[in-house]
């Protein structure tokens, strides 16, 4: 069966990386089903971006699934903890949401099996990122093995592939890829700590990485930052 006749599940946050990952899947001929998780994140505005991206890419189905991870807390994105604004550090920052990608991929896997899809796309990146452990290639490889053990489809020999087309790209590479694919960066949202008026803060790790990527790529980012 060719990719043109297959469905792919896209984990679509509304950020630049997930947008580019989804567009790559569409370019490869997959029919797209998008899953966006509303986990009561601080930057809930990204859900609007996810909706816009899903519409622009013409996905077959877009599910926005409520899952209130603020009940767990443990992160500046889900609890009353200040978002760091001093620059990207070497350690794992407080914006790390405990096991987020593990939780999200598990949900995506369930949707994939229910929709008879075998390919899952996620926009994780292991170069220009904030050091989250659940963005590493080892995690993706481990989850792919687990997916085959945990599902009826895997048990019957029809396993799943976790597609990570951005895994080894820099943010500059990703910015260039967005333009190549004909995407408008303004559709996406990156900021962890939106300012009043729904403007990106310009100082959180995610804003800094986005700005750095576009600057290094020599591409104008239409995002209007507070600072």
UniProtKB/TrEMBL annotation:
- Catalysed reaction equations from the record: 7-carboxy-7-carbaguanine + NH4(+) + 2 ATP = 7-cyano-7-carbaguanine + 2 AMP + 2 diphosphate + 2 H(+)
Q: In which pathway does it act?
A: Purine metabolism; 7-cyano-7-deazaguanine biosynthesis
Note the InterPro entries from the entry.
QueC (IPR018317), Rossmann-like_a/b/a_fold (IPR014729)
Q: Which cofactor does it need?
A: Zn(2+)
**Residues binding ATP:** 12-22
Transmembrane feature ranges:
none
Tell me yes or no: is Thylakoid among this UniProt entry's keywords. Answer: no
Q: Tell me which positions the record assigns to the signal sequence.
A: none
Which note does the record give on the cofactor? Binds 1 zinc ion per subunit.
Its keywords, alphabetically, are:
ATP-binding, Ligase, Metal-binding, Nucleotide-binding, Queuosine biosynthesis, Zinc
Chain segments annotated as coiled-coil in the UniProt record: none
- The UniProt annotation places Zn(2+) binding at 191, 201, 204, 207
The enzyme's E.C. designation: 6.3.4.20
Family assignment from sequence similarity: Belongs to the QueC family.
Function field: Catalyzes the ATP-dependent conversion of 7-carboxy-7-deazaguanine (CDG) to 7-cyano-7-deazaguanine (preQ(0)).
**NCBIfam families xref list:** 7-cyano-7-deazaguanine synthase QueC
Q: What name does the UniProt record give this protein?
A: 7-cyano-7-deazaguanine synthase
Q: Which organism is it from?
A: Parasphingorhabdus flavimaris
**Designated gene of the protein:** queC
């Amino acid at each position: 069966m060719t990719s043109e006749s297959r469905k792919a599940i896209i984990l679509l946050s509304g950020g630049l990386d997930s947008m580019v990952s989804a567009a790559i899947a569409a370019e490869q001929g997959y029919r797209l089903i998008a899953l966006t998780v509303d986990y009561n994140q601080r930057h809930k505005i990204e859900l609007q971006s996810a909706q816009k991206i899903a519409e622009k890419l013409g996905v077959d189905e877009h599910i926005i699934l409520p899952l209130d991870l603020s009940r767990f807390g443990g992160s500046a994105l889900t609890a009353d903890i200040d978002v760091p604004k001093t620059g990207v550090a070497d350690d794992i920052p407080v914006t790390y949401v405990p096991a987020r990608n593990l939780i999200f991929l598990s949900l995506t896997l369930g949707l994939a099996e229910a929709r008879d899809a075998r390919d899952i796309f996620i926009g994780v990146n292991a170069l220009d990122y904030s050091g989250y452990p659940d963005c590493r290639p080892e995690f993706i490889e481990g989850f792919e093995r687990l997916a085959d053990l945990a599902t009826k489809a895997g048990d019957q020999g029809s396993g799943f592939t976790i597609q990570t087309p951005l895994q080894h790209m820099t943010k500059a590479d990703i910015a260039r890829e967005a333009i190549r694919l004909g995407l408008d960066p303004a559709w996406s949202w990156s900021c962890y700590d939106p300012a009043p008026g729904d403007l990106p803060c310009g100082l959180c790790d995610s804003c800094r990485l986005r700005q750095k990527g576009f600057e290094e790529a020599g591409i104008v980012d239409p995002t209007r930052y507070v600072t």
